[in-house]
Amino acid sequence: MSARTEHVPVVFNIVKWYGYVFASSYLLYGAVKIVLAVLDRKYDSMAQPFIFLLFGLILISVTLAFRETKKWGWYGLVALNVIVIIGALFGLSHAENYILIILSLGALGALFAPATKRCFFDRR
């Protein structure tokens, strides 16, 4: 049985898993690009994969803080989704940016849902 007996809302779990998937995509992309650069002996183009790997590690720590219902985890996920939306707005010529905007707007909506905010800000 779980040690946590309180009820976790569905929107909380949706945002949590969106954060995990988003962070793991950065981790996976960075790690695969680093391995492929080492195997191809192209060491001059390894800075960008390390940045992606570092960004993925930061995102996974924010998502873990969100899972532990720490306020800075909620603020971090809000900032992440706002940054994703702003970054995607600069590249609207690519179709995947429309998908990122829709997913991030959905995650922002779930973050600002009353059930999710109650988990973080209604502790009495």
Q: Can you walk me through this structure?
A:
The protein is mainly alpha-helical and 124 residues long. It has one domain (10-117). Helices cover 77% and strands 0% of the residues. The chain is built from five helices and no strands. The radius of gyration is 17 Å and the shape is globular.
Structure in a nutshell:
This protein is an all-alpha fold and about 120 residues long. Helix content is about 75%, strand content about 0%. The chain is built from 5 helices and no strands.
Highlighted features:
globular; single chain; 0% strand; mainly alpha; 124 residues
Q: What order do the helices and strands come in, and which of them pair?
A:
Blueprint: H1 10-40, H2 47-67, H3 71-89, H4 95-111, H5 114-121
Helix pairs in contact: 1-2, 1-4, 2-3, 3-4
Shape: globular
Helical segment tally? Answer: 5
The biggest beta sheet, please?
none
The pLDDT mean sits at: 87
Helix content: over 70%
Counting helices, strands and paired strands, the structural category is mainly alpha
Radius of gyration: 17 Å
